[in-house]
Amino acid sequence: MADNVNKLNFNFSIEGGAPVPYVLANEDKTFLIFFIRDDRTLEEKIARFNFKHCQQLRFGSPNEDLLSSHYLYKQGLESYSIFEVRDSSWIDELKTTLYSNSRLNVLEGYKHLVFCFHDSTFECICKEYQVDILDLSMPEIIDDTVVKLK
Fold first, then answer.
1. What is the β-pairing status of strands 44-52 and 56-60?
2. Distances (CA, A) of 102 to 96, 106, 107, 122
3. Of 10, 49, 137, 144, which has the fewest beta carbons less than 10 angstroms from its beta carbon?
């Protein structure tokens, strides 16, 4: 079955009120930064996801009020949550449209991730990702991430 949506569990929750997601990217690196709530201490912190070998990304609508219009909603998407889509139709589409002439399966092992925020949704296809939980301010993290993009 295509588009098998699986909720990912971390030791934090996406901040419900205003997670304020930022996407910083160039051709080589993609970062997603947003406010979280630490599940153990209930402190507000910031998560920075570093997506390795990001092939494509989508960022924008739907927001939480329109999440039911997302094509993956019936497979289990929920607000303020992070998901991995196994057997992704988006990855299949890329295989057939962009890489159909390639003898190598360049998207083998890639992940389709979905982040459902209050006012937006972020999706990407990446080989792997790393998440860091940071105690710095948002401006400091953005400045640090811009340096990492160079």
1. unpaired
2. 10, 8, 11, 28
3. 137
The domain limits of the chain are 4-149
Residues in the chain: 150
**For the CA atoms of 27, 130, 79, 83, what is the dihedral angle to 10 degrees?**
90
Enter the pTM of the model: 0.93
What are 97-136's pLDDT values in tens digits?
876 666 557 788 999 999 999 999 999 999 999 999 998 9
Distance of alpha carbon 56 from alpha carbon 47, whole angstroms = 21
What 75-78 contacts at long range (C-beta under 8 Å, 24+ apart), as own/partner pairs, is 75/3, 75/4, 75/5, 76/5, 76/6, 76/7, 77/5, 77/114, 77/116, 78/7, 78/116
Where b means 16+ CB within 10 Å and e means fewer, 86-106 reads: eebebbeebbeeeeeeeeeee
